[in-house]
Amino acid sequence: MSRSIAVLVNPSSRGGRAAVAARRLLDELRAAGAHTTVLAGRSAADSARLAREAAGKGPDALVAVGGDGLVNTALQGVVGTGVPLGVLPAGTGNDIAREFGIGSSPAEAARRALRGYAVEVDAVCCSGGERGPGFHYLSVLACGFDARVNERVNGFRLSLGSANYLAGIAAELRSFRPVPFRLEVDGRVVEAEGMLAAVGNTRSYGGGVRVCPGARFDDGLLEAVFVHAVGVRDFLRFFPRALSGSHVELDEVEVLTGRRVVVEAEPGADGRPVPGYADGERVGALPLVCEAVPGAVRLLQ
């Protein structure tokens, strides 16, 4: 019996590279006799609808071809259904694919989908904000400075991978001021002014920045990293060290681990609410509640 594979693609990702990768993937799947369905939404909301509808039909796999944002869209469709999620990275950061050791070869993506071997990995259920109940993410929730950087990067016209993130950091440093945060991790509370708070199911965001270096996707736990308020010069030490994960050794960095993390913050000095971004996508303004969901997703490996 031929396998049924749904392919979700963002044709405009990375200047059309995702569309090229999707065509190669489809050629490989069809040559192997698979029945394929192509999903290409007119918007993020439309893609999420298509992913949910496709997963509801019970395909052998749903493969996302694009960046972390599209993988997140596919995740909303498959979480809790048992339908395996495949990833063919063709975006800017590709942190989710990197974390799980997934390469960018369409032929390899086709073999993963045809073989059907999947492992159970944790996801995070994130409530509050603009997404409503039932929103999940796979990598990191960023709040504060890093979320502001995300907003800047999303507005860039050109996609230059991690270079975009570095440019966003440089631009945001000129105007950012510490934010009054409150974190609660399994009942433990940290209440202080800070630069950022990150809640990780996996280690990286921003194209390989290991902000939550101790996070693991199969332990049922989340790692919350909080950076206390510091001057710009001291804060600059954070980013080079975050590339390797050694920033957690700095005095201004506090790390907590738990199953449930609540992140709250007062508006910044500019009066704007503090946003949260997960898998590179805007979740909404704080407060947000993150809960680990062990084995919520079957990921093609």
Task: Please provide a written account of the structure.
By secondary structure, this protein is an alpha+beta fold. Helices cover 28% and strands 34% of the residues. It contains 9 helices and 15 strands. The strands form 2 sheets. Strands 5, 6, 7, 8, 9, 10, 11, 12, 13, 14 and 15 form an 11-stranded antiparallel beta sheet that branches. It has a 4-stranded parallel beta sheet with strand order 2-1-3-4, with helices on both faces. Helix 1 (17-31) crosses helix 5, helix 2 runs parallel beside helix 3 and helix 6 (145-154) packs across helix 7 (162-173). The longest helix has 15 residues, at 17-31. The protein is globular and about 60 Å long. The two termini are 21 Å apart. The mean pLDDT is 92.
Concise summary:
The protein has 301 residues and is an alpha+beta fold.
Number of helices: 9
What is the average of the pLDDT values? 92
Strand proportion, as a percent range, falls in 25-35%
Helical percentage: 25-40%
Encode the helix/strand succession as letters.
Answer: EHEHEHEHHEEEHHEEEHHEEEEE
- Major sheet details: 11 strands, antiparallel
Q: What global shape is seen?
A: globular
Structural topology:
Blueprint: E1 4-9, H1 17-31, E2 35-39, H2 44-56, E3 61-66, H3 68-78, E4 85-89, H4 95-99, H5 106-115, E5 118-128, E6 136-137, E7 140-144, H6 145-154, H7 162-173, E8 179-185, E9 188-200, E10 222-228, H8 232-235, H9 238-242, E11 253-258, E12 260-265, E13 275-278, E14 281-285, E15 288-300
Parallel strand pairs: 1-2, 1-3, 3-4
Antiparallel strand pairs: 5-6, 5-15, 7-9, 7-13, 8-9, 8-12, 9-10, 10-11, 12-15, 13-14
